[in-house]
């Protein structure tokens, strides 16, 4: 049975969306959509219009928080098992960021596994920021099912695009009000920074 997947990009300049259909055998892009934002109007109203104008209905809706709205840390941990990492990451992050543990939501992505452990990129998002993001999407008629950090999804596209990732590579995302830089060495993410400057 086909499932429709919607990826949203809520930028400062425009709203963007990719709508895909996925089955057990294949995936295909149904459409790419963009609408310029009006800074004088409610973002929720504009998202509602965007959804309605392009029939952006999906089984799964993916969205992202801006990189400057979260705290990111690279951690070297002496574990490779997922359960051990899940138990350790919140405690490691709590000693490195200026938020109370009960005020944040944490997650992580394994960057590299070695014989001695794992390198991960850990993310801490204020619960209020995440709640406001989800409430905004819900009010606009979307059904948000997954929230990522906007700097990370493009990494998956590099391999599909056939980019040679041997040696050192810098990936730049220069937007209207923020810039993200990712540093990759031999295909492995080494650094990530979002600046609140477009």
Describe what you observe in this structure.
The chain has four helices and eleven strands. A five-stranded mixed β-sheet has the order 3-2-1-4-8, covered by helices on one side. The relative contact order is 0.16. By secondary structure, it is an alpha+beta fold. A hairpin with a 2-residue loop joins strand 6 and strand 7.
Average pLDDT, rounded to a whole number, is 90
End-to-end separation in angstroms reads: 42 Å
Bin the helical content: 10-25%
Low-confidence stretches: none
Largest sheet: 5 strands, mixed
In short:
With 198 residues, the protein is of the alpha+beta class. It contains four helices and eleven strands; from the N terminus they run E-E-E-H-E-E-H-E-E-H-E-H-E-E-E.
Give the key terms:
single chain; 198 residues; alpha+beta; 5-stranded mixed beta sheet; 3-stranded antiparallel beta sheet; 23% helix; 45% strand; globular
List the helices and strands and how they pair.
Elements: E1 3-10, E2 14-22, E3 27-36, H1 43-53, E4 60-65, E5 71-77, H2 82-94, E6 104-114, E7 117-126, H3 127-139, E8 144-149, H4 153-160, E9 168-174, E10 179-185, E11 188-195
Parallel strand pairs: 1-4, 4-8
Antiparallel strand pairs: 1-2, 2-3, 5-7, 6-7, 9-10, 10-11
């Amino acid at each position: 049975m086909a499932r429709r997947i919607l990826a949203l990009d809520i930028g400062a300049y425009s709203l963007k969306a990719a709508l895909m259909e996925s089955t057990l055998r294949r995936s295909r892009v149904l459409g790419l959509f963009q609408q310029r934002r009006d800074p004088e109007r409610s973002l929720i109203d504009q998202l509602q219009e965007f959804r309605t104008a392009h029939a952006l209905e999906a089984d799964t809706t993916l969205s992202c928080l801006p990189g400057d709205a979260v705290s990111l840390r690279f951690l070297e941990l002496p574990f490779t098992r997922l359960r051990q990492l899940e138990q350790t990451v919140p405690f490691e992050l709590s000693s490195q960021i200026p938020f109370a543990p009960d005020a944040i939501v944490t997650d992580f992505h394994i960057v590299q596994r070695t014989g001695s452990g794992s390198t991960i990129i850990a993310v801490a998002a204020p619960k209020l920021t995440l709640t406001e993001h989800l409430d905004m999407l819900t009010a606009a008629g979307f059904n948000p099912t997954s929230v990522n950090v906007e700097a990370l999804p493009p990494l998956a596209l590099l391999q599909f695009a056939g980019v040679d990732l041997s040696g050192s590579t810098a990936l730049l995302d220069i937007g209207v009000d923020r810039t993200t830089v990712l540093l990759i060495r031999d295909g492995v993410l080494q650094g990530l920074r979002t600046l609140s400057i477009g």
